[in-house]
Amino acid sequence: MYHVQTMYNIKQAAARAGVTVPVLRAWERRYGIVNPGRSSGGYRQFDEESVARVRTMRTLVDEGWSPSAAAGAILDGSVPVRDDQPTSPAGAPTFALGGHAAQGTSPAEAAAMTERFLAAAKALQPDAITSVLDDLFARGSFERVATDLLFPALEALGDAWAAGQLSVAGEHLASSAVQRRLGQALEAAGSGDARGARVVVGMPPGGRHELGALAFAVTARRAGMPVTYLGADLPVEDWLAAVDGASAAVIGVVTARDRHAAIEVAHHLLAANPGLVVALGGRAAQAAPGIMRLPTELTESVAAVRTSIAA
Ligand code: B12
Q1: Per the domain annotation, does 125 fall within a domain?
Q2: Which DSSP category does 104 fall into?
Q3: Is 228 among the domain residues?
Q4: What are the backbone angles phi and psi of residue 278, rounded to the nearest 5°?
Q5: Which pLDDT score is estimated for 64?
Q6: In 3D, which of 226, 241, 232, 281 has the Cα closest to residue 259?
Q7: DSSP code of 138?
Q8: Which pTM value belongs to this model?
Q9: Is the CB of 169 under 6 A from ligand 1?
Q10: Å from CA of 173 to ligand 1 middle
Q11: Could you tell me the pLDDT band of residue 89, with boundaries at 50, 70 and 90?
């Protein structure tokens, strides 16, 4: 038995892969997902393997991957080409739906994104940072992306800085790009239900690591809670004034220094407002009498605040 390689023109290839001709052309040009041969008349010719690659990319994009991430994963072999029928996911790898990684992102890919983020920071390349953040935020809900992809990348950023592998400029460039993204997300999340229980979020005096607190504020707003986000380094008197009429105060605690400062703020807040829910969140947060410690997962931490307010 011999095998004749079937070739398709661009229209046939696009139809078999389930995309339009302009999409197929764009994916070829921008992402190099296919590299078709040419007929003697100069027309593109696609083999079965190319069609399967485009079909796999389409499936990944439908699942929520960004086109560039999908193409990259197919080209570097981290996602196998699915040569099954377009609509049948049988035998296709499963990508941790609701699992650890953001939907559609394998742990290897998450690690690759962290590497890209670090490389862009080290090389002081703002456009490359923008592009990693675009890819990252195309990977699923805000909460999953923040918890599964963004925070690990920030942690790696801190480790690289502490190990002397990354300049202060590189760290600032990357963390301020993240801060701008989170700020946009906060604006986009609306202002919450004005009649709901208000939550005031910020950092203790001297605390400048506000990204976790900001991500918490975004998550709370997305859950419909009215949030007053106050940002970094907030003096005790300002905390006291800001919680007037609020139901909860959430204080970010990232360093040991933050912890002492946050507990002091919490004591002042509780003394002046006995019914107020006071919660500490972040890597160095600890519970204390009358003060709750938030879980690390953002949606759980918002749920914990909501439950405490209701109680
Ligand atoms: C960006 C960054 C900065 C930026 C912050 C910019 C900004 N706009 O926030 C700047 C440049 C200001 C900075 C300064 C410093 N930094 Co810094 N920084 C970082 C870095 C890289 C990321 C911080 C971050 O955003 N982390 C991610 C957040 C989101 O994590 P998280 O707050 O713990 O929250 C987690 C959860 O709890 C959860 N969560 C769930 N619900 C809620 C709710 C709330 C309210 C919160 C907060 C979180 C939360 O979300 C997260 C998921 O795990 C970290 C590295 C790291 N490992 O985190 C170092 C790091 C925190 N920095 C460090 C240091 C040493 C410093 C400086 C002292 C450096 C210096 N010599 O000046 C100063 C101190 C500044 C100050 N006064 O507070 C150390 C801290 C070491 C320690 N054990 O205390 C780290 C760990 C770096 C390292 N590996 O050594 N830093």
Answers
A1: yes
A2: T
A3: yes
A4: -120, 125
A5: 65
A6: 281
A7: T
A8: 0.75
A9: no
A10: 15
A11: very low
